[in-house]
Specification:
Layout (H helix, E strand, L loop, with lengths): L3 E5 L6 H14 L4 E4 L16 H11 L4 E7 L6 H14 L4 E5 L18 H20 L2 E4 L6 E5 L12 E4 L3 H10 L2 E4 L11 H21 L8 E5 L13 H14 L3 E5 L11 H15 L1
Parallel strand pairs: 1-2, 1-10, 2-3, 3-4, 4-7, 7-8, 8-9, 9-10
Antiparallel strand pairs: 5-6
Length: about 300
């Protein structure tokens, strides 16, 4: 299967001061998709500009024509399935069916406390995600939904006319644990990982490849348990969080080598960060654009 190459554009630029241009350029460069983070703020960017994911994607939908658009990733940290479903159906309509929802359980970052709540434990995050995703699935596929849950409920929530994409827009489910992988197997059209975070500081690229191999095997087992062929799921690696860090973007050859190793594992889509100077995602823009236009052809 041909490897797809996508990018993630962090929402750190005003739309009329560089923001719009990046989304347009992503389409010109031929990326399969352009995603953005769905956070209220994020790590080292907390004290600088940071705009909302869904309004940014809506704006991007109005100036692009072919590029797929999506979040990497949305989480329950500050969202509710009922309101999220309405926004996603609207975005899917505006984009004429070009939206993918990257979605995961969330973590302990700034989003976890921004609404004034205490951070959820890992178990509570998993419990909430286990309710959030199936309810969102129903909300995007059924005209009216009533549901009573421990954490999330809906009362005759109506979402007509539904998504442009049928039966709904695709889910790319971020997961590495057993409960999340089961959700990916049951509800996902794609699976997303960033690798094994325990290897980021001290691990080696070779150890990372083996860890990713293990994650894919666990995904396969989760699919087998419900009688689903794991080949039905796209397998997406959001790069920049493995021990390789930014080295694959240092040259075309370096990226082709990195991409080839991960294509052999079974990944069908790699996502690279749009360069941001003086940040963890700093890279030479010319090299980045050369990778965008030449790398896939070299992978065969």
């Amino acid at each position: 299967m041909t490897l797809r190459l996508s990018t993630v554009i962090l929402p750190v630029h005003r739309w009329n001061d560089g923001g719009r241009d990046r989304w347009l350029r992503a389409e010109e460069l031929g990326f399969h998709a352009a995603y953005t983070y769905d956070h209220l703020s994020w790590r080292t960017f907390r004290d600088g500009p940071w705009f909302g994911a869904l309004p940014t994607l809506t704006a991007a939908a109005t100036v692009t024509r072919r590029l797929r658009l999506g979040t990497l990733v949305t989480s329950p940290n500050f969202r509710h399935p009922v309101t999220l479903a309405k926004e996603l159906i609207s975005l899917d309509d505006i984009s004429d069916g070009r939206v993918t929802l990257g979605i995961g359980a969330g973590g302990n970052g700034f989003d976890a406390t921004a609404l004034g709540q205490e951070p959820w434990t890992p178990r509570e995050r998993a419990d909430r995600f286990g309710e959030f995703l199936p309810l969102l699935d129903r909300l995007l596929t059924e005209g009216a939904v009533t549901s009573r849950g421990t954490h999330y409920s809906a009362e005759e929530a109506r979402n007509l006319p539904g998504c442009v994409q049928r039966p709904r827009l695709p889910f790319a489910v971020a997961a590495t644990g057993p409960r999340g992988l089961k959700l990916a197997a049951r509800h996902g059209q794609a699976w997303v990982t960033t690798g094994d975070p325990k290897l980021f500081e001290e691990g080696t690229p070779e150890e990372s490849v083996e860890a990713l191999r293990g994650q894919i095997e666990k995904l396969g087992k989760a699919c087998a348990e419900i009688g689903r062929d794991t080949a039905e799921l796209e397998k997406v690696l959001l790069t920049g969080f493995t021990p390789d860090r930014g080295r694959p973007l240092e040259s075309l050859d370096a990226f082709v080598d990195f991409a080839g190793r991960h294509q052999e594992l079974g990944f069908t889509e790699l996502v690279i960060h749009w360069p941001i100077p003086d940040s963890d995602f700093a890279a030479d823009q010319r090299v980045f654009e050369r990778i965008a236009t030449e790398a896939v052809a070299q992978l065969g």
